[in-house]
Amino acid sequence: MLEKVLENLHWLGHDAFLLQAGGKIIYFDPFQLGPGLPPADIICISHAHYDHCSPPDVLTIQQPSTLIVTEIQAAAKLKGKIVTLAPGERREVEGITIETVPAYNTNKQFHPQSNSWLGFILTVDGVRVYHAGDTDYIPEMKEIRADIALLPVSGTYVMTAEEAAQAAILIGPKIAVPMHYAAIVGTSDDADRFAAALAGRVRVEILGHR
Questions:
Q1: Which residue, among 48, 73, 45, has the nearest Cα to 58 in the 3D structure?
Q2: Would you list the domain boundaries of the chain?
Q3: Has residue 201 got a pLDDT over 90?
Q4: What span, in angstroms and rounded, lies between the C-alpha atoms of 147 and 29?
Q5: What CATH architecture applies to the domain 2-202?
């Protein structure tokens, strides 16, 4: 089932992903979406920054039944069916378990811990998928268990590739996927450095941009 979930996980650029699993269409942090994407059942938005909470992008995939799961600041920018969560919460949504975990900076001020912004762990078809949001390498990661970990690698606003590799080693997923590069900040070199740092330790899949 792990390979099936991976096959149905599509990187849409930056921190945006489309996951077709559990009979649902799930998006993470939709931003700069291309045309022709399917309407969402669930949209998970990690925090209020424009490149993660983008109301125009949400509108392109939102339908009346779409459920948005996010934090309070992002929720204020959006309309529709919205559930707000804080780090450390858990919610069952249409057969999918959504857990929220902290996402914050430790050595920069772009994502303060006090904002209670989010990472997500979704359990779909028995597979735990962790979307880290915009975060540094933080102590709470030692408690995270995931089969697939989507980790930012660009530095500047988030972890560097090397720090993200440390996070992957700590979390111990079966598969690690780099994100947060080749858009606002970072390049494919960051993804390659991430993969090189994990060679022989954690399987890395660099997904093609859809």
A1: 45
A2: 2-202
A3: yes
A4: 20
A5: 4-Layer Sandwich (3.60)
